[in-house]
Amino acid sequence: MLHIRKARIEDLPELIKIENQCFSKEEAASEEAFKKRIQTISDSFFVAERNDKLVGLINGPVIETAFITDDLFSEIKANPSTGGHQSILGLAVNPDNQKQGIATALLLHLEVKAKERFRQSLTLTCKEELIRFYEKHGYKNKGLSNSQHGGIRWYNMTKEL
Length: 161
Prior knowledge:
Blueprint: E1 2-6, H1 12-22, H2 31-40, E2 45-50, E3 53-59, E4 62-63, E5 85-88, E6 90-93, H3 102-116, E7 121-126, H4 131-136, E8 140-144, E9 155-160
């Protein structure tokens, strides 16, 4: 049984482990960034657990613009109580638990929470090979992002709410 809940500071070691298994060193969020996100945007930082083991995470701040900007990876502000665009800076699932619907469950959980807060859209950047995954979940490809994060080519993906 999969359980999704808010991330807690004591999750940090396992969060870092999953993040580093799923992203390159240049792309992965640092321990400091995760700590700041847990403290600042706890209402949009969720983890998935199966059998009391952390297996995935999703997080991102609510932003005023429709697309993610690179400064978000280091500068996080508290989410407004309503409105804005729910960004997704990270969606990661332990490689041993991939292809089991966990990423989909995390996406849907964040979407429900975003709708409850009257967010305008969900917005993220992804690599080319993940475009179809997000399109399957109702996201639209808005083309190449200006992001230089991790030295990767990113694509803007949005889903209107």
